[in-house]
Amino acid sequence: MTQLSRRRFLAISTAALGATGVGTQWSALTGAANAATPAAGTVTQIPTFCEMCFWRCGGIAHVRDGKLWKFEGNPRDPQSMGRLCPRGTGAVGAHYDPDRLRQPLMRVGERGKEQWKAVSWDEALAFVAEKMNKIKAEHGPESVALFNHGFGQRFIQHTLKSWGVVNYAGPSYAQCRGPRDVGYVLTYGAGVGSPEPTDIKNTDCLVLIGSHLGENMHNSQVQEFAQAIERKVPVIVVDPRYSVAASKAKYWLPIRPGTDLALLLAWANLLVTEGRYDKAFVEQHGHGFDKFAAEIKGYTVEWAAEQCDVPAELIRSAAREMASHRPASIVHPGRRVNWYGDDTQRSRAIALLNALLGNYGRKGGMFLAQGIKIAPFPLPKYPEATKPRADGADAVQYPFADEGITTSIRDATLSGKPYPIKGWFVYSTNLMQALPNAAETIKAVQNLDLLVVCDTVPSEMAGWADVILPDTTFLERHDELLTGFGRTGWAALRQPVVAAPHDQKPSWWIAKQLAEKLGVGACMPFKDMEEYLSFRVEKSGYSWAKLKTEGVIMAEHKPITVEEGLELSFETPSGKVEFWSDQLAAKGFDPVPKYTKPLDTPAGHFRLITGRAPGHTFSRTQSNPLLHDLMPENELWVNTTTAAKLSLKNRQYVQVKNEDGVLSNRIRVKATQRIREDCVYMVYGFGHTNKMLKTAYLKGASAGGLNTRYKTDPLMGATSIHANFVSIVKEA
Amino acid sequence: MPRFAMVIDTRKCVGCQDCVVACQTENDVPQGYCRDWIATEVRGSFPQLSMEIRTERCNHCDNPPCVSCCPTGASHVEDFGHTVQVIANKCIGCKACIAACPYDARYVHPDGYVDKCTFCLHRVKEGKDPACVSVCPTHCMYFGDLDDPKSAIHTLLATRRHHTLLPEAGTKPRIFYLT
Amino acid sequence: MLEVTSTRHNLHIDPVLTVWSWEIPLYLFIGGIVAGMMVLGGLALLRLARGEDTRRYFSMQTPLLAFMLLNIGMLALMLDLTHRLYAWRIFTTFQYTSPMAWGSWLLIIVYGVLLVSALIRLPDAWPWLSRKLPVLHKLSDAIVGRPQWIAVLGWANLVLGIGLGIYTGILLNTMVARPLWNSAILGPLFLVSGLSAGVATMHIAASLLQGRAAPQGMVGGAFSALLQPMGPQHPEKDTAHALLRYDQMFLVAELVFIAILLINLHTSSASHAAAAALITSGPYAAAFWGVVVIAGVALPLVWQALELAHKVKHTVAPALLVLAGGFTLRWIMVSAGQMSEIVPVLSMAP
User: Which residues of chain A neighbour C1 with C-beta distances below 8 Å?
Assistant: First the structure.
């Protein structure tokens, strides 16, 4: 056990749990008579919360004569505030997706050859249970690991843990926001959480480091971002690419990739040396500030200007701007921060910058999110673990990791150390694209006796499975109650609005059936989710009937900022904000983040950077007919000058090759002034190779597939995504 | 009689295409077609750049060339709201209106008639905003009566700089972009 | 630098407008030919009404040919309509602002006039039919015996021919959205192009019959009704020359009107100039200069002048070239016109 204090909040990682042939006409798919005026019919409205991404906005499904018509925001819901993002609005397409998985499949032939036979649920689950029990007998239940993402994993994880699984992890930690939360825990004693408690609605200055709100579609944050724009709040964007957010910024710093830490340290240094930081906050709550100030003294603006390839005056102006609005000034902690392998320290630098701005627990800064208390359903305890986790989470290797590390479980599967991992249960995550260096994932999979994939669409990961279990989309099932953290806590209900079109089953049902077959059926002592949910709701003093019609229960508002009377406290070793981290020093890490220069870009190459599009979520929405229509493929952003030098024409198709010789699928060039000359950009999630994804097959290129060279963060095991250099190969 | 119009704040629009999807589900737009879309204009050279993002659709013009060229009167100006609408069972699919529209806002529906944005009149008649306006997460879209001095769009047009699309075409479009 | 993107991708709208394909140029071409035939036929009927020779070939026979050609044109139009089962809707109303409505009603009258005009010589050209329907003789005699009726028919043919030839040009040129068409000379250009194509068609038809006896049977008579002069008489020797002289006039006018069109567009707005560039130097340049201007107008002009001066033997080759040029002109105008668009003022800033 490390000195690291446990975070107070963990909404994402450990939270609980077909239609027509090839579509031609949307109206044919939805059964409407005439597209000129909407079809008449009886419309019922059913509230539920969305799972098109992890924001979990509350919505209301409109069902017309028994067929799903549209999905709109639930005005009662504090996440959506009555409006959904394009993926939520396009959730209807997930229900009608012609490529979605329809029935349980079992592999015939070699792993990865994508040859299947359709089987019954009974046969599929019996097979899974049999294989799992065999692994248990030979190696122990610790040798089965669970990889999960998404709310539906709740009972899958519960069943598996009840059976004895100890190794479970979601890529959202080591391949996404893990470094950020650890960086924050090291500084403030608490992680950032989800959604990030950024009070953008009331802020007077917003700084985005790489975050591209508006293209990354964190619904409520985009809504507040727009409000801030309307209030003419100055926005500062640090991004090698002229993102949508950059186009609305007062200052855009087109930073050289890999040098963000230099900028952050120079900013911190400026705030300290020019006395623009929150002295009162530092005095009252700071630990080790003087040592910190001394440590960062050398990071001048001029030095950073050279490192970052950004004019010194711009760096200076931006710093002075953000300081002038403190404490209502936010440096957004970001979300997918696993860029270069030093990401925990970089996130800590952001945490420190925010501390200098004194915005912790302040209006217009970072508020302290509040939750809601809903009584649990009495469930049996999990068995005592006899072996430690295999992913080094509790061990020495990554001393500050506080969640499961997916890539470390993969490492254990590859090496057999500390003990062999012989089975993987993969729920709703496309590990083949999500984990770096797919070749390692493929190799690890070869060591398995059992690979089960449970998902809604046939992902690349599903292509390697022994058994594929088709999950329902969120529109077709109940799930665990959402207990949301925000300005006010809330609970939201997920209930089915339409029946699953084929033989898909909700994950809670899969978990229950599997539990029976594994002999741990007692772990889910309820008949169905209505029983489970209504118990929890009623026991907490709320009305189940009301929740079914309204969809949301709001908690009582408690103080979330100092302005509202909140008392600040920090669960760090010193009990204060750690400008200087003794616990980091004790483990041999830099107590204050230190900058290391990134690798130079090799001649003829460009750093590959990746990001999000508002119409897609990772690699799982590309076959959704509505969202496919918005963006059927990704594009390679290449600076116009670079394109001219390489004789590339706009919209011409090329391939991207990385230094390990991996050649991407063809991707269309977007020759633009909106990006630096030393990097190229593509949206993540395309380049699908599973042939069952007919709509998305070989459309665009896979950024995940090109991520073969990666650095691992030594503090908590996160793996980088922006450490690859690529060259552009013209099509023959 | 009201004269419906839209005002769109390009400063807030992020081009997320929520309006596109909302329209498609609300109006059962055939797959592969869209009644509204996002246009972007980027000016300058790296790193001195500016960008305007717009959500566009039929402008329901005051001087609609698509109405005067229609041989059957299918394309007409509706009394309620002075919006431009198409009566599907009067349309013969000659596509003169498509050629006449400087904004290329129309398309041929797979069922044969010409289709386009209707300003969601079916919703407006119930006192709601068009689907695109209702869904927009940045609240950058406003819908209302141009002739009503109390409407939000009236105030916005009076107090903010704005432009329309292709004013030189003489169509007098009724969608205004705040800059 | 300016970068413009759009997420719209509607079929036949993006990236370039292509809602009108071969059907429309074909109709425009045929419409032009028919218009040309009607104008010349009308002029001939007026001379006939004044008592001149009744056996001038082209005044008598081409109404039926025009009628058959028009059917092909109308078929093309119907094929273009994507909602054609509702085509009757045009005739339940009169949208006076729509040149297409004007044209549609015009065509109804054109059909009527063509059929009545054809009655004049039909019984003599198709003896088989007139044996079956003796009433045809009575109708024909009734018209032929009344110069006033012939004059009315003449005026009708003339006016309707001009209307038919010009309305499609007006239809296109009202469209501000398509700068290539946005010139007032387009209507007159289509008219003179139609006149020369009409003459060329009659010229070819006349040459096909030179020296042939009139067939008497049902099918043969039907065809000869289209093309054959009445009875055993040949077309007059100088009919061909008369046609050639008309054609030269029309070809010169066409060259002038094309020049006016290009000058007009080039000196209007930047959008119009860009539209003109599509056909003068852009993707349609080769077809425009090579087929329309040179092969379709300039070369026949020279060739037919040589024929008229008896320097070369008379053939129908120049007429065929004129037809090829006429069709290509319309095809280019329809395709390039859809490609042309208003270039936003704002995008012309550096």
Answer: 640, 673
| B4-178 belongs to CATH 3.30.360.10 | no
Chains in contact with B, where contact requires at least 3 CB pairs less than 8 Å apart:
A, C
Report pLDDT digits (tens) over C180-228. 999 999 999 999 999 999 888 888 877 776 655 555 665 555 655 555 4
pLDDT, one tens digit per residue, over A50-68 is 999 999 999 999 999 999 9
* Cα–Cα distance for residue pair A213/A208, rounded to 1 Å: 8
Cβ–Cβ below 8 Å for C1 and A640 = yes
Give B26→chain A minimum CA distance, Å. Answer: 6
Please state whether the peptide bond connecting residue A195 to the residue before it is cis, i.e. omega within 30 degrees of 0: yes
Position A179 confidence tier, pLDDT thresholds 50, 70, 90: very high
- Between residues 78 and 117 of chain A, which touch chain B (CB distance below 8 Å)? 83-86, 89-90, 92
Chain B within 8 Å of C212 (Cβ-Cβ)? Answer: no
- The beta strand positions in C50-103, using DSSP E, are none
Q: In which residue are the tokens 């010589």 written?
A: C121
For residue A674, list chain C residues with Cβ-Cβ distance below 8 A.
3
Does residue A23 carry a pLDDT above 60? Answer: no
| List of chain B residues whose C-beta atoms are within 8 Å of the C-beta of residue A229 | 11-12, 138
The pLDDT > 90 percentage for chain B reads 99
Taking only Cα atoms into account, the Rg of chain A, rounded to an integer number of angstroms, comes to: 25
Residue A218, class by beta-carbon neighbours within 10 Å (0-12 exposed, 13-18 middle, 19+ buried)?
buried
Contact (CB<8Å) C177/B17 = no
The nearest alpha carbon in chain B to A229 belongs to B12
Q: Would you say A83 and B137 are in contact if contact means Cβ atoms under 8 Å apart?
A: yes
Task: Say if A227 is an interface residue toward chain B (CB within 8 Å).
Answer: yes
In whole numbers, what is the pLDDT of chain B averaged over residues? Answer: 96
- When divided into structural domains, chain C yields a total of 1
C7, A630: Cβ pair inside 8 Å? yes
Q: What is the pTM of this model?
A: 0.92
Interface B-C, measured as beta-carbon pairs within 8 A, has a size of 161
- Average pLDDT of C297-318? 90
- The domain of C170 spans 23-82+91-348
- Check CB contact under 8 Å for B43 and C175: no
Q: What mean pLDDT value characterizes chain C?
A: 86
As a whole number of angstroms, the distance between CA A441 and CA A454 comes to 17
- How high is the ipTM of this complex? 0.96
Confidence at residue C142, expressed as pLDDT on a 0 to 100 scale: 85
Given an 8 Å threshold on Cβ–Cβ distance, is B21 in contact with A630? Answer: yes
Q: How far apart are CA A125 and CA C347, in angstroms?
A: 62
Q: Which two tokens stand for residue A321?
A: 């701007």
Instruction: Please tell me if residue A9 touches chain B, with a CB cutoff of 8 Å.
Output: no
Residue boundaries of the structural domains of chain B: 4-178
* Residue the block writes with tokens 């830099």: A590
Give tens-digit pLDDT for C242-293. Answer: 777 878 999 999 999 999 999 999 999 999 999 999 999 999 999 999 999 9
For residue C252, which amino acid is it?
A: V
Among candidate residues A52, A171, A152, the one with its CA nearest the CA of residue A704? A171
Collapse the DSSP code of C309 into the 3-class scheme (helix H, G, I; strand E, B; otherwise coil) and give the result.
Answer: coil
Domains of chain A: 182-367+573-586 (3.40.228.10), 606-730 (2.40.40.20)
Q: Find the mean pLDDT for residues A455-461.
A: 97
Looking at the predicted structure, is the pLDDT value of residue A13 above 70?
no
- Is the residue at C2 inside a domain? no
How many Cβ atoms from other residues are within 10 Å of residue A693's Cβ? Answer: 24
The string of DSSP codes covering A408-446 is HHHHHHHH--SS---EEEEES--HHHHSS-HHHHHHHHH
Q: How many residues does chain C have?
A: 350
- Compare B140 and C62 and report the one with higher pLDDT: B140
pLDDT, position A16:
32
